[in-house]
Amino acid sequence: xxxxxxxxxxxxxxxxxxxxAVILAWASKHAAWRDERHLGSSFGAxxxxxxxxxxxxxxxxxxxxHLLGMSxxxxxxGLPRAVIGxxxxxxxxxxxxxxxxxxxxxxxxxxxxxxxWAWACLRLSQRYLPTHYFSYFFANGFFGAAAGxxxxxxxxxxxxWAAGVYSATYLSEEALPYYLLFGWSEAFTxxxxxxxxxxxxxxxxxxxxxxxxxxxxxxxH
Length: 221
What we know:
The structure is a single chain. The protein has 221 residues and is mostly helical. Helix content is 71%, strand content 3%. It is built from eight helices and two strands, in the order ααββαααααα. The chain has helices spanning 10-29, 39-52, 70-77, 79-95, 104-128, 133-162, 168-200, 210-220; strands at 57-60, 63-65. It has a two-stranded antiparallel sheet. It is globular, with a radius of gyration of 18 Å. The N and C termini lie far apart (46 Å). Mean pLDDT is 88; it is low at 217-221.
């Protein structure tokens, strides 16, 4: 998913950077910089995801297909740091000539629904689901990742449609089926990764408290 700068009017590109600046200002204020315990894993996850983004394919300019890793980034880093991580990933993507620096803002805004959904899904699962390892990595890692991927794909397609780059018919027939399939790959990959992390490296995951889950399990027995 990589909208190109030459596909959009300059006004949309400027609006994208304006929205990005506002969201980054919020994220910088709430990023809990004193929490050094998860700082390394947060930016390490962003670095790894930026590498994964280089493994992409596409059918038309602005319509590329690759794993996103946004749900995993939110679960590992928390929402504010994930927002900052997304900006860094987009900059690295552009530096590697897989994107345009001028389009970073609009791509950032199009990707925000995936981050927002991942955080909302986490909060809903914490409130309504039992405190189990399974609930954490299935609801957030599997289901949350798939839905987040599809929301990001929808955001990109709507942007391209609204800008008149592609018609709704073309997007629904030529791009949407591939995004739906990639969503399941995103779900499987994220679910496996988060399952391994919460079992073997829970200290790397900011949104997971192994003490809470272990205590719950011991109470059941």
